[in-house]
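pasting PKD domain-containing protein for the record, 192 residues
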Amino acid sequence: MFFVWQAPATDGAASGPFTQTGRVCRVPFQPGEPGAPDAVEALVLPVMTQADFQRLPLPAGRSGVEPASGEVLVAMPTNTYAVAEPVTLQTDLLGFPVTVRATPVAYTWDYGDGTVTGPTSEAGAPWPDLRVTHVYERAGEYVITLTTHYEGEYSVLGGPFLPVPGQAQVTSDPEPVVAFAGRTAPVADPLR
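structre below
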């Protein structure tokens, strides 16, 4: 039986007071396995916290904006979509090797005009499948910023994967757009 103790982190190091947050039965080695000790030894294994997860170098999702030129029209939908893939990272906690699997699960779009959409599980898609769009009401220069939300699970010493509490967020580089106000006017038939 292992007892799980946690303390708030300050500057990356735990600072008291520690509180017991759970118990778990875990056998790190099966008797008779190559490399297993003669008797099963109890190991105190570290627990990955949300703060640990957030500190990992998770990749930012790639944001797509259409029209790709970044020149959009007022009162017309601007299409946005995210491209993000699951990732597996190797790290260590308190000297123990840890494998972390991070999966993008939600996206937040800041359109630079005071409108924020999300978090939503919808990643959007390129044209013509317009699922995540925004309509600018005024002409001007804006930046669109994507934040990708990851959920994770981790394995210490090759043991079972356990869920990381909470999520980690990674913000992509902003995408500049210019919204132009259009006007309608009759024109001569260009085919004549």
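The chain has a mean pLDDT of 86.
The chain has two domains: 1-44, 48-180.
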